[in-house]
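ok new one. same drill as before - structure tokens go in, u give me an amino acid for every spot. 265 of them this time. try not to just spam alanines like last time pls lmao
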């Protein structure tokens, strides 16, 4: 299993022996695959290919949690933008509580304010609800962060907001469509995080390939997120298979252990 990050004070960020691997999955079979390749945890979501992920059913959460690997549940009530009405925030709160009651180890959320940056007030509300349900629950801010960066929000300020809100981790491609294009920004986020968000992990995700792993490690990211779904033959790079490739998942896990060298796609 990927090296754990723990300060002994409840935060998941500390000295990193090697970056953690998180697999994006849609069911218990995906969790079992993640466990088999040595992933640290999974992000459980629904309709990944169709919507880039929405909240899974509570039955699926319960089933996934029974596998035994830490399950972090995506709580996103609909596709589209990340500015939510008060009614939608109420749904998100209820889904957070339900997911954690079902056995989830954490939740994955993302809310943006009127200025396009992370909404600290709303996030504090969601973090409080999560910690009320489970004091040790981990909170990941998803790629709404990339939408914020793409809109011109200052990266240091955006990270600082996550720190203020009590978020543990941010999933990001550096504000670009994928990690290859956002590689330099990912490295900058790691550096900025040491000052502006010292307890927030930087987790690279979005278009992660085996060939990219060494560069992600060089950038100093704390974790790597992938669905391990190979690109479809002849596609532009955005279209991927509906299911994870077990061999690719295993190679990605091994690459994080070895530094990514001497592996073939």
């Amino acid at each position: 299993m990927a090296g754990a990050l723990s300060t002994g004070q409840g935060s998941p960020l500390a000295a990193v022996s090697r970056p953690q691997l998180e697999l994006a999955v849609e069911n218990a079979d995906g969790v079992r695959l993640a466990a088999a390749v040595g992933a640290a945890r999974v992000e459980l979501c629904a309709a990944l290919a169709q919507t880039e992920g929405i909240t899974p059913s509570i039955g699926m959460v319960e089933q996934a949690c029974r596998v035994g690997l830490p399950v972090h549940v995506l709580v996103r009530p609909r596709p589209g933008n990340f500015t939510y009405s008060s009614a939608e925030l109420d749904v998100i709160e209820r889904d957070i509580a339900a997911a954690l009651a079902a056995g989830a180890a954490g939740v994955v959320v993302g809310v943006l304010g009127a200025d396009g940056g992370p909404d600290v007030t709303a996030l504090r509300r969601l973090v409080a609800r999560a910690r009320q349900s489970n004091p040790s629950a981990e909170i990941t801010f998803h790629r709404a962060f990339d939408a914020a960066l793409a809109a011109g929000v200052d990266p240091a300020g955006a990270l600082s907001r996550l720190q203020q809100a009590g978020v543990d981790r941010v999933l990001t491609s550096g504000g670009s469509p994928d990690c290859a294009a956002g590689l330099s920004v990912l490295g900058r986020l790691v550096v900025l995080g040491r000052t502006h968000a010292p307890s927030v992990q930087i987790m690279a995700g979005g278009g992660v390939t085996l060939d990219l792993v060494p560069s992600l490690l060089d950038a100093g990211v704390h974790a790597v997120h992938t669905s391990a779904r190979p690109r479809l033959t002849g596609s532009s790079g955005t279209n991927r298979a509906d299911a994870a490739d077990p061999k690719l998942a295993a190679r990605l896990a091994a690459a994080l252990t070895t530094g990514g060298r001497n592996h073939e796609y």
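Residues 86-101 form the longest helix (16 residues). and btw Residues 1-9 have pLDDT under 50 and may be disordered.
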